[in-house]
Amino acid sequence: MIPMDTCSSKQMNLKQLRDVMFPLGFITYGGPLAHINVLRERFRDYTTEEEFQELFALCQTLPGPTSTQMVIAVGANLTHSCLGGLVAFLYFSMPSAFVMMVLGLTVPNLSIPWIQLLINGFKYASIGVIIEAAYKLSNGAIKNKFHLFLWIASAIVTTFFPTPSIAVLMIVIGAIANYVSDRQIGQQLLIPQEEQVQHSFDSWLLGYRSLIGYGIAFVLFFFLSYIDWMPIAVCSNLFKTGSLVIGGGHVVLPMIQFSLSNYLTTEQFWNAFALVSCMPGPMFNIAIYIGALIGGIPMAILAEIFMFLPGFFTIFGILPYWKKYRGLRTIRAVLQGIAAVAVGFILSAIVHLIINSCSQGIVVPIGIGILSCLCLYKSVPIPFVIIGGGFINLLAQYK
């Protein structure tokens, strides 16, 4: 990997940002960590290594999609504007979002048998993708035996009780329990001022307004999510889901499945995941497919907005304050507890995916799932694994 410049960060204008960001929406395969690596390479001439790593640490501890928030943070920081963050997001997310919307409008209406066999194969190969994600995310989230306990407990509880309220309850319990467990070392110590990196994007007024707006929106949508009218229920549940995700894009999967179970079958959900796994860009683009599937183009656009909106609120709200409070141990203890619980949700998702995949047979789904695990272990790119699973299933059914 080419080292980045270690001198002060350089300011960019929107044209320069566009030139750097444009390819990312087409080449960022492989999940959040791969996205971060590509982002680092693209911006190595503009961002110092120290500042890039600090922004990455910030985005890892905030609710929302890590790689997308990193894109927003870098764009806003280097252009000194919210518009820069928005432009960076659009170039990163929109290419695959457009394709996913088109697929959401067309795939469910196709009655061609071999296409459904391909999609089923994509879904079977996704077993390996989620297992790999659970392994990688657990390495970062589980730092001690208590985190391991929270991880296992959340997986067991949400496997047997897969409801949104239980997921929220487990997150709250994880945050409080880890704070209590960490209280003997959870002194409110700040990193010394001279060790802190000064962020260019430093609007305290923007941060204040973003956090206030986020708090009001979260409370409002929390209650609106219980209204049984599809547009309000879907948008509010996606906002709530986007607010509770810490630990990587795959954590969003069981939360969406839990919260939208009244509007989305299990088969439709896992088809959506299989398709988004073949795409570049953020995992959260699954929302635009689901929106298109449920309510056409208007619902697709609303679903995409409400899924990503919490990420904008939190990154714009916290970024100006981060350099002062990033060393606060009590805050980190709470976020680490949430992260451990959230990764446990992925284990639950694996169980439900395997059960769903084996509903019409065991040998082919499990075989493709094991093969996908082996391919990912050998560093085969995720899109190749997913597409390969589709063709293997197609050949197996036409043997």
TrEMBL record:
Which keywords annotate this record? Cell membrane, Membrane, Transmembrane, Transmembrane helix
The protein's predominant localisation is membrane
Subcellular location field: Cell membrane
Q: Which top-rank group of organisms is this from?
A: Eukaryota
Entry-linked PANTHER family: CHROMATE ION TRANSPORTER (EUROFUNG) (PTHR33567:SF3)
Which family is it part of?
A: Belongs to the chromate ion transporter (CHR) (TC 2.A.51) family.
What name has this protein been given in UniProt?
Answer: Chromate transporter
Per the UniProt record, the source organism is: Paramecium octaurelia
